[in-house]
Each structure stands twice: as C-alpha cells, then as structure tokens.
Design goal:
With 317 residues, the protein is an alpha/beta fold. 37% of the residues lie in helices and 22% in strands. Helix 4 runs parallel beside helix 5 and helix 6 crosses helix 8.
Length: 317
C-alpha cells in the first residue's frame, strides 16, 4: 500500500525550523498551516498558531514542554478536525520539535487522519540531542502512515566543507521539492530517507553525492524503492536521465526494488533521492533500548514527560 495525499491538507510546523518550513510550504503550495512551539518568536507569523506556555521557566526541558503540551491537546485536535491529510514537520534536533512530535502525531492517528511526517535529525556533534531525537523518531514513525527522515548530518559528512546553515538550506529545499511532488505521486507506507547534494551543475555528480549521503544512513540491501527527483530535468538530455535510472537500478541490485523518475522544473539541475527503507537504519541506534518492541514495554502508551507543580510547603525542621 502507498500513501496518497487527500484534500484538504494541513501542514503542522513544530518548533523553530518546523514553523519556518510550514510557512514556506503555505506560501509556495497554498496549504493551510498550524504553528506550534513553546517559543513565541517561532509563532511571529500570520495564521493559526498554538503557544505551549512554559512561563515563568526561561529554559524549559523537552520533557517539561511535552508535559505542558498535554493541556493543549484539545486545541490541537480541534484545529485538525476539518482536514483529511496532516503533514507534520518536526526538527527533532530542537527541544520543541522533539517534545511535540509524538503528541501531535498521536492526535492525528487517534482521529484517523492520513499522517505524513518529516523528522529532521540532529548533527552528530549535537551529542546531547541524539538520544531524545531517536526516541521521538520512534514514536513519530509509530503514529504516522509514512515517515520521511531528513538527515543533515549525512549531508555534512558527504560535504565537510559545508556549514550547518548551508546543510539546513539544502535539506529544506529538498523537503519542499518532495512535498510539491506529492500532488502527482504517492509514497510507500514505510520509512523513507531523503538524500540530496549541494548545487552542482552536473546531475550525474549530484546523483553520486545523493547516493553517498544515503549510504551514511542505510545499506543498499534494505532499500525497497527509490524515487528520483531531477530538479531542472527538462534541460537534461534524455540519455542522461535514462543512464541515471539504470545506475540506481544497478546499485540496488534487487529485482524487486522499484525505481521511479520525476522530472521537475527549476533554475538549476540537481538530484533529490527519496528511498524507502525496510529494516534498521542508523537512527535506530540513537535509542540504546530501541530494539525492544513496544508491546514489551510497560509505559509505551504515553511518552515520557514532566509537569510543573507549584507546591507551597513549609520548611520542616
């Protein structure tokens, strides 16, 4: 089975990066969007928004943000009701995104919506964020019909000369490209990995870099399908496009692996590779206990969180 977009569509941006991307998608594609964050600065845009109010705590933990968000479940559910498809964009490297992704996706699942989620993973040097992002990703995948993982760290490892901001810009552009293409295509109901390259005039070199980025996250044997977006492909010779598809098919090797090509418009030519993965990826190792199936975990139903309680206790001596 495959994930197919159904109108009307609501794009939910979680945290700083998620809110910015949701606004870009709204402006480009015309979808309605909902912004959710604990930071008021992320919500300084026109449109529907929900503030997870953590005052008076200045630097709340992700667990506290998640705990307070339970009080906003009713408001989030009310905003989702009129829509058939919910697209969740969460920066799992940020506190808001990682804290809210399991909650928001769970609400969408409970209401029977078609849930497509994008999880943006942290850089490897952000060691304090890796564990929490891995746990959040596991829950996001469980609540979503289809999950697409955006791994900026793999892009940085393939292109060590890039700055973190450059990596974010390239990945965000690729994410917008995929969402734009969903109007005319479908996605497998599995975990998908988004890989791309920096702007390179030669699309074959761009494809090579995209494959190199993919190999950072999963083995070729785990790939079950591949969708090849060639941005600016109308300017690329047909023979080159055919050669690229044959190259992808030859690398993956399995006769059951489906390779599709989508040619889109653009000022510059670049390749965006979306691959469907079956089995383990390196993100499963972010959570050391992730190998335990959820049916064997006593407290799986509600994600870990903390709450703010003001207790007026007298000093006992």
């Amino acid at each position: 089975m495959e994930f197919v977009m159904q109108d009307p569509v609501l794009v939910v941006g979680l945290g700083g990066a998620g809110c910015k991307l949701a606004i870009s998608i709204r402006d480009k594609l015309g979808y309605e969007c909902l912004l959710i964050s604990h930071d008021q600065r992320d919500l300084d845009h026109e449109g529907s928004r929900i503030l997870i109010n953590t005052n008076p705590i200045l630097n709340p933990s992700a667990y506290l943000i998640r705990g307070i968000s339970f009080g906003a479940r009713g408001s989030i559910a009310e905003r989702m009701k009129p829509y058939s498809t919910i697209i969740i964009i969460a920066n799992l490297a940020g506190k808001s995104g990682a804290a809210l992704a399991p909650i928001v996706s769970q609400i969408g699942k409970e209401f029977g919506k078609n849930v497509l989620s994008f999880g943006i993973m942290p850089f490897k040097f952000e060691k304090d964020r890796i564990f929490f992002s891995g746990v959040s990703l596991k829950r996001l995948k469980a609540n979503s019909d289809c999950t697409i993982i955006v791994d900026n760290d793999a892009l940085l490892e393939s292109n060590p000369d890039l700055t973190p901001d450059s990596c974010n810009g390239i990945s965000n552009s690729a994410l917008l490209q995929v969402i734009s293409g969903l109007r005319n295509s479908s996605l497998p109901l599995q975990t998908n990995i988004l890989s791309t390259s920096k702007d390179i005039p030669d699309v074959e070199t761009s494809l090579r870099d995209s494959i190199k980025m993919l190999y950072e996250d999963a083995s070729p044997n785990s790939i079950k399908s591949a969708l090849l977006y060639v941005v600016g492909g109308s300017k690329v010779p047909v023979g080159v496009l055919n050669s690229m598809v044959n190259t992808i098919s030859g690398i993956f090797g399995d006769d059951s692996t489906r390779v599709s090509l989508s040619v889109t418009g653009g000022e510059r030519s670049k390749v965006v590779l979306l691959t469907s993965i079956e089995g383990e990826t390196r993100f499963d190792k972010y959570d050391p206990l992730g190998f335990i199936p959820k049916q064997s975990v006593l407290d799986w139903d509600e994600p870990d969180s903390s709450i703010k309680i003001d207790l007026d206790l007298e000093q006992l001596e």
